[in-house]
User: Which sequence fits this backbone?
């Protein structure tokens, strides 16, 4: 049975420059990575053609052809996986690229190995690390079904590291709402390049800003709070995890009476050895939404209330 072939476009770093690429999925399983050749870096006669940068399982072919379109490459992947004779591949090598008659012209401009038959030998592939990047391309639909084991809503996830990160995030922020900075710091380690974009706005802060004095001030800034979080989406890959969360607290903040605070939050964790470190936090208090006029006023820098400047006094969260 012919597998269902789909594509996820992405950029692939090849020998110091970005190349247009496609993940090729067969029945929602990653089968191959193709990159598009560019005349500025490769033989001009192959400009725009698609090259197998990495194949997996049966698709790990050392002498793969070039393809004019991703669809041609996908059809070839389908042939390989179904065990059909790869006539398409032979046709591509002999009749379309001319590589058999011109073995000195390697599509990637690399020095090739040739044997007695002078057939094109596939060069050593660059080491490729795949990460799930949270961009507009990472949309929740069937096209990323191959990542479901490691990129999914937490409610359906059995990934122990992802589950642990979500639990630690909730426990740490619950401690913070009580002013318990020791527990917070025990549960969350900031990356050296950590950046916070606070719900109070203003200039983002970095790890260097979080001195012991500032951490103590944060413990005094939040008091007597309760906390819970709703995980909207959670993503994880080998070295990065992203949590999209609604945080809901009832807490005294900066000397104000206790009230409900709901924040839309994105947390980015990065693996450092055996430890996950918080690399980025971005929060805003717009869970309930604002009108166009209110958003316009904020964009003009008009504070909702001139009586209190929390942004200037907040130690950050």
Assistant:
């Amino acid at each position: 049975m012919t597998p269902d072939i789909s594509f996820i476009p992405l950029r692939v770093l090849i020998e110091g420059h970005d190349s247009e690429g496609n993940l090729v999925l067969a029945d929602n399983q990653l089968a191959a990575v193709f990159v598009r050749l560019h005349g500025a870096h490769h033989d001009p006669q192959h400009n725009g053609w698609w090259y197998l940068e990495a194949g997996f399982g049966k698709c790990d072919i050392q002498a793969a052809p070039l393809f004019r379109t991703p669809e041609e490459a996908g059809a070839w992947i389908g042939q390989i996986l179904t065990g059909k004779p790869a006539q398409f591949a032979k046709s591509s090598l002999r009749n379309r690229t001319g590589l058999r008659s011109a073995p000195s012209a390697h599509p990637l401009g690399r020095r090739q190995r040739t044997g007695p038959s002078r057939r094109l030998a596939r060069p050593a592939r660059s080491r490729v690390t795949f990460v799930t990047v949270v961009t507009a391309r990472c949309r929740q639909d069937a096209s990323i079904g191959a990542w479901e084991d490691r990129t999914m809503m937490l409610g359906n996830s059995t990934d122990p590291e992802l589950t642990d990160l979500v639990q630690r995030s909730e426990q740490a922020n619950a401690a913070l709402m009580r002013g318990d900075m020791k527990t917070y710091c025990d549960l969350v380690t900031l990356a050296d390049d950590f950046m916070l974009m606070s719900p109070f706005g203003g200039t983002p802060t970095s790890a260097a800003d979080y001195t012991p004095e500032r951490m103590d001030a944060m413990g005094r800034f939040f008091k007597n709070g309760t906390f819970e979080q709703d995980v909207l989406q959670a993503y994880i890959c080998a070295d990065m995890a992203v949590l999209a969360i609604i945080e809901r607290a009832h807490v005294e903040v900066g000397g104000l009476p206790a009230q409900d605070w709901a924040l839309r939050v994105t947390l980015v964790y990065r693996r450092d050895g055996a430890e996950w470190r918080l690399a980025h936090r971005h929060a805003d208090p717009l869970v309930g939404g604002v009108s166009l006029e209110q958003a316009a006023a904020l964009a003009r820098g008009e504070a909702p209330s001139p009586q209190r400047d929390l942004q200037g006094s907040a130690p950050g969260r």
Summary: The helical segments are 70-82, 87-96, 160-177, 181-187, 212-221, 292-299, 310-313. The chain has seven helices and twelve strands. The chain has two domains: 5-130, 151-313.
